[in-house]
Amino acid sequence: MSRTTGPQEFAAFDGGKVEDLRQSLETPTGVWIDIASTGHGAFQIPPDADLVLRISTAAAIRLDVADAVAWTVMERFHHLQPLESEIRCALQESVGNAVIHGNLALDGSLRATLEGLRIFSATMEQRQSDPAFAGLPITICARARQDGIDISVEDMGGGFTPPNIQADSIPAVAASGHGLTIIHRCCAQLRFDSGGRCIIMGFRL
Amino acid sequence: MQFTTKRDGNRIDVAVSGRLTFADAATFPQFVDQVTKGVGICDFDLRELSFIDSTGMSLFVHVYDAAQVSGLKIVVRNATGPVSDTLRKARFDTLFEFK
């Protein structure tokens, strides 16, 4: 495992202006902070993380965060290449959950019906334009190991009580609830912290 | 996600491209209305769809629900790579005719 930079070197970027997040993450640092996200005063850089990305909700909707983080992890830690698709897939689902159910505080159960979906979508549109929601950060931390990597995704929402979902519990096709099952399938280990606001995924070679 | 539609009588052809993810969720009702109303056959071409996540899959569930109400026939064609894998793992091939 190669560590090219220390986690305390950081770079700022404007998530409201960036067009290609991969390019922004090319800077040789360990921590990237979207200045368009809020609450930096209370943010402490995790001391043991190899990569940290703190990005606003608006930017997480507009940009392909999962692709950029997975790509950066592969660039930094070549021995993790066999895990790339699992990392990319789990990140996509966990960032989606952090945005929708976390920071935008949208009720996924509304999507059970088309009429509910209309309310869900209208509320999403309104909140993603509201600076009070759109600026809330999502923080992704990665800690590489010889035998894999641990990646956490944390939002600023109200948290939740994680259901008991198993990797093999493939639900019948449904409008929601599939994301955690997909994440479970991609990971060797999965746990939640901070009252459900932080998902910690362990990927192993 | 981007999509284009082409109506021909009772049929609509819908070409979906890009990435279909949670980021598109605010547009789902408009999509469902546009592709399911006033037609009898809806043909999705997913050749240019490069990625779909679980929220994206929920869009097709809503299309399915709308089809159940109206009697609309749905065909999904040209799903390849990770999109095909994801849809089949989630058993969408039991809901729609895949070509």
Automatic annotation (TrEMBL), chain A:
InterPro entries xrefs: HATPase_C_sf, HATPase_dom
Protein name: Histidine kinase/HSP90-like ATPase domain-containing protein
Protein species of origin: Magnetospirillum moscoviense
A Pfam family reported for this protein in Swiss-Prot or TrEMBL: HATPase_c_2
Domain of life: Bacteria
Record-annotated Histidine kinase/HSP90-like ATPase domain positions: 65-201
Lineage of the organism: Bacteria, Pseudomonadati, Pseudomonadota, Alphaproteobacteria, Rhodospirillales
Automatic annotation (TrEMBL), chain B:
Origin: domain of life: Bacteria
Segments forming domain STAS: 14-99
Signal peptide: none
Coiled-coil intervals: none
InterPro entries: STAS_dom, STAS_dom_sf
Protein name, UniProt field: STAS domain-containing protein
Gene3D superfamilies xrefs: STAS domain
Organism: Magnetospirillum moscoviense
